[in-house]
Amino acid sequence: MDGTPFPEFPRRRILHVDMDAFFAAVEERRRPGLAGNPVVIGGRGDPGQRGVVSTANYEARKYGVRSGMPLRTAHRLCPQAVFLPVDHQAYAAVSLRFKSFLRTVSPIMEDVGIDEAYLDITGCDVPDRQIAARIKDGIREQTGLTCSIGIAPNRLLAKVASDLEKPDGVTVFGEGDVETRLWPLRIRKLYGVGPKTEACLQGMGIETIGQIAAFPLDGLQRAFGRSYGLYLYEASRGVDESPLMTHWEPKSVSRETTFQEDVGNWQLIAGTLAGLVREVSDELREDSHRAKTVTVKIRFMDFRTVTRAKTLAGFTDSEEEIRRAAFACLKRIDLDRKVRLVGVRISHFQK
Ligand code: TTP
Ligand code: MG
Fold first, then answer.
1. Are residues 282 and 327 in the same domain?
2. Could you tell me if the CB of 20 is within 6 A of ligand 1?
3. In this structure, are 152 and 228 located in the same domain?
4. What's the pLDDT tens digit per position in 296-345?
5. Is the CB of 57 under 6 A from ligand 1?
């Protein structure tokens, strides 16, 4: 045993890029006068009004300012900070620029949110550190901003890795690093663990990812359901075989709905998903296709986007089977805040 969970699979190299203090960095870049000041971005930029912190620069974080806290609290912690309103358009424009640069490094890119993306660099003939340096230089040239990069055998570990040496960091993670570097981390560092799951795990006496890994599968499944329990069991071991979901994949059918108003009601989200499943499975049958992989996408009110995929044992065009898979995906998503968009995609076709 050499510590590789699945030695028969070809070793993949997945790279995760996450921009540093993204909204704040864009503002600092276009307002050089801000240099050296604590900067807080949120709402209308007025700490006297309602609204939450979208992000704060690292200077403001020293005072305890964090994403998600009321602007008023941020102002109490750091009254000298410069408060600015959220300018989504400006951030989206920068986001497009760094992602089109990333596509020149590898065409296999998954766009996961305004300031992050995954690249599959298995086929790139350049050592890890060198490719990371090249990406940092390119992003700096294109946007003037810094990012943090994680490189690992799968996307789960790549995401954990990119967060370990923020800001402006590079972390290369091998399978052998699971015990020494993944297990000591707090459970919230594991992708897919939100505040609700965190509270539940803490109630079970679990504080670190290693303690999840030490917990028996059936116990996790009893507490979190079959599929999310299995997800936690595998993720805590650093196991993740999910492929990157690239936009240009031609063989897929997808549908998505953006709600008029953000929705917190699970029933409504599940009902919407069921409707989308009906549409994609109708289209599948019209084209006489059968598919094997179902992916569910949720975009939260703050534009964070999460996808979960399930690959079935065989090809199918049955609406019921696809719905069951879609619901299993949905259950693996921690719906800890309101949802803006629901989407479903079926892929991996057989004519
Ligand atoms: P993050 O990557 O989580 O945060 P960040 O880029 O500001 O800081 P870092 O990665 O260096 O830790 O989120 C990216 C952007 O998404 C962030 O700049 C603002 C926005 N955002 C919100 O609007 N609300 C939130 O609760 C979070 C976490 C982020
Ligand atoms: Mg970021």
1. yes
2. yes
3. no
4. 999 999 888 899 999 998 899 999 999 999 999 999 999 989 999 999 99
5. no
